Amino acid sequence: MALRNVKNNVIGNPSAKLQLARDPFFVTNLIDCLNYLDPRVRIEAAHVVASLSYGSDEALLSLLRANAPRAFLFAIAHFQPNDPPALLPAFTRALRALAVSIADVVGPSQHALGPQSSIAKHDAKEALDFLFHLDTLDTLLPLLALPTATSVPTSIAQLLAAAVRDRPHRRAVSEWLPPPDRPKDTATTTTTTTTNNNKARRGWEKASAAPVGPAWLARILTGLLNTRDVKLQEAALSALAALAKDNPDVAVPLSKPTTADREREPTPAPLSTVLALATSRVPDVQLAACLCATHILRATTPTPPPAHVHAPSPARLSALHTPFPGPGPAQSQGQAGDDTASRTVMHIVNRIIDSGNPQTQSQPQPQPQSQTQSLKLKTRACWVLLADDTALCQAAFDRGCLTRLLALLSSLPAPPGVLPRALRGLPGPPGDEGAGAGAGAGEGSGAEVGSKVAGKGVGFGERARAREGEEEEEEEEWEWDEPESVAALREAALTAIAAISLFDNDVRRALTESPSPPPPSSTTTTSSSTAPYPFPNTTLTTASGSPPPPSSTTTTTSTSTSTGTGSGTGTGAGTPPFLQLLLVSLVHPAPGVRYAACQCVRALSRAVAVLRTNIVDSGLGMGVWRVCVKGRSNADSKAKAKDLGSETGTGAGAGAGTEKGKGMGMGKGKGKGPGEDKRVLGAGLAAVCNLVNDFSPLRGVLLGDGLLERMREVLGYEEAALRTSALWAVKNLVCRSGGAVKRRVGAVVGWARVLRLVDDPDVGVREQALNVLRNFAENEEGVELLIDGVGAEALLDAVAVSLRAPNEDVVLQAAYLLANLANGAPKHQERILAHPQVLPALHAALTAASALPLPSPSPFPASASASAFASSSRAEARGPIVDCVAQLARVGPAQVRAAGFEGALRHVCEWGAGGLMRGGWGTDEELVDKARTALDWFGGWTNKDVSETNKFDFLGLEAFVPDSLIMASSLARLSVSRKLPLRGVRAIQTSADTTQLQGTPGEGSQPFTVKLHPDSFRSYKCDVPELEVEVSKDQLLKMYRQMQLMRRMEMASDALYKAKLIRGFCHLATGQEAVAVGLEHGIVPNDRVITAYRCHPFAVLRGGTVAGVISELLGRKTGMSHGKGGSMHIFTPTFFGGNGIVGAQVPIGAGVAFAQKYMEEKHATFALYGDGASNQGQVFEAFNMAKLWNLPAIFICENNKYGMGTSAERSSANTEYFTRGDKIPGLQVNGMDIIATLQAVRFARKWAVDEQKGPLLLEFVTYRYGGHSMSDPGTTYRTREEVQRMRSTQDPIRGLQRYIEEWGLASEQELKLLDKDAKAEVDAAVEVAKAAPEPETKDLWTDIYFKGTEPPFMRGREREEVLSV
């Protein structure tokens, strides 16, 4: 009676629960009552324990310390047949309640973001592990086979559904077998196999021992689906979903028909039963079935490795929260070619989300019992849509899930005034054609830091405290009293949207498209957000819940004033409604909503165009950053204030029309009070990783707003996932950054800290720390900074240890880092060779990456094929390792050969990489060519016939195998070698530094001989040029300075374009300097050159100036075309310009060559075009005419591998462009080695002019580092690793620098003086161009016709006429 009174008192009474939990004597006696003699006492005690377990963390902790779980298990294990029928159900229900509370504390959360931390977490983790111990499972799982009339199977299934949340526990329960079915040698442990024990069993124990169909537990749960008890059906479906999540061992059998007897007809797949229940009349059963089907679909097909584009995978944050599933071992598909399952799930989910929403509801829906139940059902429906699989996300988008989620969010009212307050301190959208005006200045206590861009409201301000100890004004709290159920639904819908938009740019663009502006008849300014979504029949409602009048334009206004004199305003007009909603959600009081909003920003910012426009203009980028800096330490705030307290900044001025844009202050100072929830911080950091990429306009803004200081603080946190994200952000910041940024990173983050993180216990932290160092070493300046900061010995020690790490990703990043170092100056290579541990560790890594599995007595297994053993990150490491070995072998062949690399390199030449070079370190052909180059340095490549030996000796192994397996191995090798070059036909190599000195170099202009690599040329219907080339010291130094000048000019153009001083089209040739400079040194002044729009270097080398080119790009009167043509219309007397029409320059070049022949000039015309223009019909027409008339035309294809954003392999059936001239002979040339380009041009000119053999087709194999144009970041169709590899290993300038230094022509310091001279010339040219005037209005009517040929009148209208209309 006393316990019953206690039970009635604590139900729904938190304070009473807490009071009882703080009484250890009562809790101890309560747990003892679970094994009391009187069954009634035991039942009441179980009820009280169940009620307390749903109380506070303190109550749960008191139960755990009293060993409540063990007491329950002991009691259940000792129940007698004569015990009252109500006893076991009461105990299983109580144990279920206790297990659910324990799992919620341990995490990860199943759906919504749970509590961040708990005082009971340590004890709860021990208790949860106890629940999945084999002895515990032996007690609990057989209860599922009890008669379904009792509630016991329901409670156990619910326990499994709630408590199974990680892989070890999932594996423990899914592989569990009843004791009679276990192999005898595994009686005390779980097992994954069964035995052929056929002795008689009872009832459900008669399951077949053969592994046919689902495992035992999955079969039992599947059988429970056939009951009529809807609660049991829901519980069994939820338990199956928990088992199948990321678990193909369970999911695959559930998706296939099963049978226990081969003579019987197979039964339908359990998945079909699940889908049938999805059409149940009970919504809870429907949703449980949809979730179960989704997890089965996701786990039935292996997923490819995720692209690391811009931010950590959600799996990185799984230790904190997992409503956003990370990539598991397998993902979705279901039956091949049949999307019935996914369509069924989408239909049910859409119907539940639509219920009660007249905007999207297409048919009457059964109404739930209450509004609270409706919200819970919709919340569960949103969580079903979390599928980190491209196909399922696309299916969800195609079937309207995104539209319904947006409509659902629009039906949730926001409090008045929330949006303006959310926008406070964030940038407004760009103004309309406004001139820049306004300034912010700070003295003493603060400063406004911004950037001024005319007509664009892009100023960013930050309050900075210069006086230590000064208190910051408390930030006003949000008055957002939203019910918990509404906040949970908001979180679920946003998280589902983030998941759907994670993979596809079309989805991201749809979410961020601005709504069509309504008629301007009624313009209203209000403090709430109202605008139509870019989807049919959906609107973002006002606070009152009603949509605005269709003719009104609603804008939002935010104002922020910093401590300095600057202030700013920005309007919200034109911001897409979903982005406005995200701004509001970023400041929501519920951490789960903020987390989901950050995940949405992270997903949207993966689209480059969205990041560079909507994310910046709407203020979302700075909004996420505000989440990340919440609660930053006072020390960092003071340091930042010291840095910024004396700076001044400007904002852009007001624009014309109704929209405005001004610079604004962030209004954020040093953090006070509690910091952000660390799971929300993790999601925010994941988004920030995208915001600091090289193409992001926010990179400089965040860098000036304390990004590095905040990342340094996060690197000191205990959570490995947060440290990983911080390193990821630093890695992206360092990538393709200048020396100033890298020096600042080293100074703020600390070299010693990064080096310590290379030895961090967490694998993800180690991988990203190595990635940071790798990006530092992406160029020679970065290598010098890295070695100066870390120290050569310490750095190489860390690399050597990492190369031997058991984790493949760590080995891969260590290999990339070492390859970058080896591609540096000779002194760095000598350091690597002198280190006692690096070469042995490198050899071990290459051996592990190339190792074949030893043959087995069975027929040659598929797993031993090249594609199987090369499919890991360790296999991917072959690329950088082989490249590193090739570079080191050139400097110290004896040392490298003595380290045992010859056998491993021969193995690489035989097997390649199986077509699995995923990291951008080149193709199979390039990998093999690098290995052969290294062997050449050893003394020559010799092919070894595998059939002549009976042992696998490629790695120095002496593993003897039967001849039959050798033959099978040879066949397998033949099948994967189809992509490799044919024997006797070597692929063109594109290394920039393989030319060798012959003899002693001369001084000044005295010529000397060098010898090109044998694979520098490939020919078609002609001989290759001589490999021995005459050059001189003066010529090489001049070419070096010219290449540096061209590089600096293009880099300056890049910066001017990003500063919005260059407008319109701008195509840069960074990386292709060897083509332009080599061409100029191989021709004579009166030869003619014509090319496309990537023409700046040619214009300067053919008689123009750097100042003339940059002035033209800036639209200034001093430009080469008086500022009226841009880069597509630059000319000199012997340079016929860049041409804007793709391929049009080729027939024009043929015409120029015709004129030269007609005038009997002893000169040639060089017409250049890209691989993207090679398929133009006019190109082939020009070839035909040139050959027909035997014109002195040299057609040059600059093959930089990509035509705009399409690779050559995807656009051309024949990518050997030098063979496409039909009757015209061709020559393929290494366009990254300037000496090879020089020799090829000399050969071509001699062919056409001296020998008069007619036209010749050259293909320069080169590479551009940037995108097709400045509007293309160049990373959406190729990997960053690929670009970085080319920069660090095959850069033409670095190659020539290596020649000059190694041949003793100039020292490193002398070359640095040439670099500084080139930079000074470009800097001066930029200043001249900036100071030059723009063309006058009257110049619009000049330069239309050649001077002296102007007609007496010109068609058109005078300016005065136009203005007077």
Automatic annotation (TrEMBL):
Residues 469-484 have a biased composition (Acidic residues). InterPro entries: ARM-like, ARM-type_fold, DH_E1, PDH_E1_Alpha_Subunit, Pyrv_DH_E1_asu_subgrp-y, THDP-binding. Residues 186-198, 552-564 have a biased composition (Low complexity). The keyword Oxidoreductase applies. One of its GO terms (biological process) is pyruvate decarboxylation to acetyl-CoA. Transmembrane segments: none annotated. Residues 170-206, 303-340, 420-484, 510-573, 638-673 are annotated as: Disordered. It comes from the Eukaryota. Residues 431-447, 648-668 have a biased composition (Gly residues). Gene3D superfamilies: 3.40.50.970, Leucine-rich Repeat Variant. It holds the Pfam family E1_dh. GO terms for molecular function: pyruvate dehydrogenase (acetyl-transferring) activity. Residues 1041-1337 form the Dehydrogenase E1 component domain. CDD domains: TPP_E1_PDC_ADC_BCADC (cd02000). Its cofactor is thiamine diphosphate. The keyword Oxidoreductase applies. Its EC number is 1.2.4.1. Keywords: Oxidoreductase, Pyruvate, Thiamine pyrophosphate. It catalyses: N(6)-[(R)-lipoyl]-L-lysyl-[protein] + pyruvate + H(+) = N(6)-[(R)-S(8)-acetyldihydrolipoyl]-L-lysyl-[protein] + CO2. The pyruvate dehydrogenase complex catalyzes the overall conversion of pyruvate to acetyl-CoA and CO(2). This is Pyruvate dehydrogenase E1 component subunit alpha.
